[in-house]
From TrEMBL:
<dbReference type="InterPro" id="IPR001296">
    <property type="entry name" value="Glyco_trans_1"/>
</dbReference>
<dbReference type="Pfam" id="PF00534">
    <property type="entry name" value="Glycos_transf_1"/>
</dbReference>
<protein>
    <submittedName>
        <fullName>Glycosyltransferase family 4 protein</fullName>
    </submittedName>
</protein>
<dbReference type="InterPro" id="IPR008928">
    <property type="entry name" value="6-hairpin_glycosidase_sf"/>
</dbReference>
<feature type="domain" description="Glycosyl transferase family 1">
    <location>
        <begin position="215"/>
        <end position="385"/>
    </location>
</feature>
Length: 782
């Protein structure tokens, strides 16, 4: 019998449970907020990166209160700490904790993620767990690598190269690190920003006041601060002290700071005890003063104010940052230092004294020269103070705020639905053979030839493209149809896919998906081609190929064929082969869904791939033309689930990335491709036809806006003038190439949006889309 489809919509609306929290996000959330998630160690952990992260948190809050920083602190589950004012913790050695944190960050809707990287703070060998973490971050990634090695191990290089490849912006604190990243790690210079380590802004020349507070009046005070560990060269200063004291007896050397926790865990205080023994051995035990504790920032600044000469005798000349050096310079202290990277840059312009490394005599000579000439000592301190004005916290906060704002994707431009995209981009990719697959930029790339996938899509576009003269439409329709026809391999009863530019086939049989997509295009042509002869041609080839598809097992292939069969049935309601195909395909997808379903996974497979919404769309369309409520319900339920995965917390469309392929029960945000946005729009159009629910129009609109900048990188992909689209979005922005698949996805998405808009207008004046002409287009359930 013929079924009146108007009965299915009330049934669906009464039986489908609304679990679509993503609809609320679409409606109520702004595209981006000035919020950033910061990942790294954090206070009260006693390490330099924790202090640096706290400085970012506090100084942005103080000088740029419009920027909110959500801290995700790396924590050691064996020695957990109590944190305040943070968004969450990440167990540093637990892979699942990184995945959970990435999901929470994505769901929070932050505009960017600022990663503080050091090899020793993340889990796995050399901290490689950070790689899986950043792969799952959708917001733009700001990277601050605190160590950029000149001669890294193979794994260390791979880790930093991976982070660099994912970063939208990279902040470094030295020019040397900047150059290393460009020359050795592949960082584009345009995404690098140098922001010197921040420093306090205190008045100059108060050392005597603070000496008095600390019982040091009348002393020449040398000082080194930081977590004690071998490599900092403190031995050389102690060895230099006898010569300094012999000339200036009132000199003391203050070593302020606790022993590094990792060293304590390994050998206790043995290193400090060796230093103390050395001081006694060379006769300066009374002149070397110890403050064995981790000093908070304000206390550290007071300690620094009480010194005359700050000494950093580090052995490691590759050290690119030293927060305490920045503090000392900003407070106007004379600095004597070995020429490690940060010291060379910060002390340039005679703002300090650089000395030969690993040399006690060099230290003694530099210190004695300054103590001998008090006017020069004061002049050096003033030069250091003037240099430090460039790095005080307000300047650092301004740089950090600018870094964040340039990383955060801007709001998308308006996305016109009714403006018809031009077709010059489509025809520029086409010749007398068909449409070429790929482009380099906007220029067709002949090296990769043609494929039946793209020519099938191009034929579908010619079926619906507006504004084409009949002669031109016929010319291109026949070109693409001829390619499809020539792709048929009569011996194997299947379509080939790839053809070289020299017009030779690269294979005897194409993939299941390419065959399924070709059948879909043939069904689409039966339903939509303006030319009757072309419709007859398409039906003939559809009926030729359909019987040979029974063995295909790919869920997407089944969905593509079902979409073609549904199109044929809407035109020829008694086309028995199409009805059989829809029933069989719907049963297969329904069984797959029940097999793979989990409480948090309402999907047909354990993995997500490309064109995901097509599986749901196929079930919805099958349910409508067959009056199979179970198919339509399953299609709507799964479409709601996949749509929820593809909407960001801030409300914009975020398609499942192609990097997700093959990852069970997981998905990644990049690379994002136009094909997925098109599929979301066309599946939403089918859902709207089944339910009349305007929220599906909202979802389709969000996917359409993705082409116009409402996306994770704020990049414009679609060009209405030429009708081209960029090939997608990677972590740094747009893939500038314009291939046939992307161009055609953009074009076909427009016409689906236009049809959806027209359907909505009909609804608003009482013309029920569910009954429009479909009573005569329905088919009995055999």
């Amino acid at each position: 019998m013929i079924v009146d489809e108007t009965n299915i919509r009330p049934a669906l609306n009464s039986r489908i449970v609304d679990v679509s929290s993503f609809f609320t996000r679409l409606k109520d959330s702004p595209l981006h907020q000035t919020r950033v998630a910061m990942v790294g160690t954090f206070v009260p952990r006693k390490c330099g990166i924790a202090t640096f992260g706290n400085d970012i948190f506090e100084k942005l809050g103080q000088f740029h209160p419009g920027i909110q920083v959500d801290v995700y602190a790396l924590d050691d589950p064996q020695n957990p700490l109590e944190y305040q004012d943070i968004a969450g913790t990440i167990a540093c050695d637990d892979p699942q904790s990184y995945l959970t944190a990435a999901r929470r960050i994505n769901e929070s809707g932050v505009g960017a993620v600022w990663l503080q990287h050091e090899y020793g703070i993340f889990g796995g060998p050399d901290g490689e767990m950070v790689c899986d973490f950043v792969d799952r971050i959708a917001a733009p990634l700001i990277l601050t690598p605190h160590t950029v090695l000149t001669e890294p191990s193979e794994r260390q290089r791979a880790i930093l190269e991976h982070l660099v490849a994912r970063a939208s912006r990279i902040m470094v604190m030295s020019r040397h690190s900047c150059e290393l990243l460009v020359k050795h790690y592949g960082a584009p210079r345009e995404i690098l920003q140098i922001i010197p380590h921040g420093a306090p802004d205190r008045p100059f020349g108060r050392s005597e006041t603070f000496k008095e507070r600390m019982g040091l009046s009348g002393k020449n005070v040398l000082m080194t601060f930081g977590l004690l560990s071998p490599g900092k060269g403190l031995e050389r200063v102690i060895e230099a002290m006898p010569e300094i004291v012999a000339r200036h007896p009132d000199t003391v050397y203050r070593i302020v700071g606790a022993t590094h926790p990792n060293l304590v865990a390994k050998e206790g205080e043995a290193y400090r005890e060796r230093l103390q023994a050395l001081a006694a051995e060379v006769g300066v035990a009374d002149q070397v003063l110890w403050d064995n504790r981790f000093v908070e920032t304000d206390g550290l600044l007071d300690q620094l104010e009480a010194c005359d000469i700050y000494v950093t005798p580090y052995f490691n000349l590759q050290q690119s940052t030293s927060g305490t050096l920045s503090y000392a310079v900003a407070l106007g202290k004379a600095v004597v230092s070995t020429p490690y990277l940060h010291a060379r840059e910060l002390l340039a312009g005679d703002a300090g004294r650089l000395i030969e490394p690993d040399s006690a005599p060099a230290i003694a000579a530099a210190v004695n020269a300054l103590l001998d000439d008090r006017e020069e000592l004061l002049a050096l301190q003033r030069r250091a103070y003037a240099k430090g004005r460039q790095t005080i916290w307000p300047r650092f906060a301004d740089g950090a705020a600018a870094l964040i704002e340039t990383a955060i994707a801007p709001d998308g431009r308006p996305a016109p639905i009714t403006a018809t995209p031009g077709l010059s981009g489509v025809f520029a990719m086409s010749d007398r053979t068909g449409i070429l697959q790929h482009g380099i930029g906007v220029v067709p790339d002949r090296r990769h030839g043609y494929c039946v996938d793209d020519n099938a899509r191009a034929l579908m576009l010619m079926n619906v493209a507006a504004g084409l003269p009949d002669q031109e439409r016929a010319r291109w329709s026949l070109t693409y149809a001829s390619f499809v026809q020539h792709a048929w391999n009569e011996d194997l009863k299947a379509f080939r896919n790839f053809m070289s530019f020299e017009r030779t086939w690269c294979e005897d049989c194409g993939s299941e998906d390419s065959n399924g997509r070709t059948l879909w295009a043939l069904g689409h042509t039966v339903e939509n081609a303006p030319d009757e002869d072309l419709r007859d041609w398409a039906l003939r080839w559809f009926e030729t190929a359909l019987p040979h598809c029974a063995s295909f097992g790919s869920p997407r292939t089944i969905a593509f064929i079902m979409l073609g069969a549904a199109a044929v049935l809407r035109t020829l309601p008694r086309h028995r082969a199409s009805a059989d195909m829809l029933n069989q395909g719907g049963e297969v997808l329904s069984r797959l869904l029940e097999k793979e379903r989990r409480p948090d996974w309402a999907w047909f497979e354990a993995v997500l791939g490309y064109d995901n919404p097509r599986l749901s769309q196929a079930l919805i369309e099958a349910g409508l033309v067959l009056n199979r409520l179970d198919f339509a319900e399953a299609g709507l339920e799964t479409l709601e689930w996949i749509a929820e995965q593809q909407v960001a917390a801030s409300g914009h469309f975020r398609p499942i990335g192609s990097e997700s392929f093959g990852k069970p029960h997981s998905y990644l945000p990049f690379d994002q491709q136009p094909l997925e946005a098109q599929a979301a729009i066309e599946a939403a159009r089918a859902a709207y036809g089944a339910t009349g629910d305007k929220r599906w129009v909202d979802h389709a609109t969000a996917a359409w806006k993705w082409f116009f900048g409402a996306n994770d990188r704020g990049v414009i992909l679609g060009d209405l003038t030429t009708g081209r689209s960029r090939d997608g979005i990677n972590p740094r922005g747009a893939n500038e190439n314009c291939g046939a698949e992307s161009i055609l996805a953009f074009q076909l998405a427009h016409y689906s949006m236009l049809a959806l808009s027209q359907a909505q207008r009909r609804e608003s004046v009482g013309d029920n889309i569910g009954s429009r002409g479909r009573s005569e287009q329905s088919v009995a359930n055999p």
